[in-house]
Amino acid sequence: MLSSLNPAAVAAGDDIPDALTIDGETLSRSDLLGAATSVAERIARAQRVAVLATPTVTTVLAVVGCLIAGVTVVPVPPDAGSAELAHILKDSGAQAWLGEAPEGTDLPVVPVRKHARSWHRYDEPAPASTAFILYTSGTTGAPKGVMLSRRAIAAGLDALARAWQWKATDTLVHGLPLFHVHGLILGVLGPLRVGSPLIHTGKPTPQAYADARGTMYFGVPTVWSRIVDEPDAARQLANARILISGSAPLPVPVFERLRELTGHAPLERYGMSETMITLSTRPDGERRPGWVGTPVDGVETRLRDEAGNPVPRDGESVGGLEVRGPMLFDGYLGRPETTAANWTEDGWFKTGDVAVIDAEGFHRIVGRESVDLIKSGGYRIGAGEIETSLLGHPAVAETAVIGVPDTDLGQRIVAFVVLRNGSGADEQSGDGIAQTLIDHVAAELSIHKRPREIRVVTALPRNAMGKVQKKLLVL
Question: What pTM value is reported for the model?
Answer without folding.
Answer: 0.82
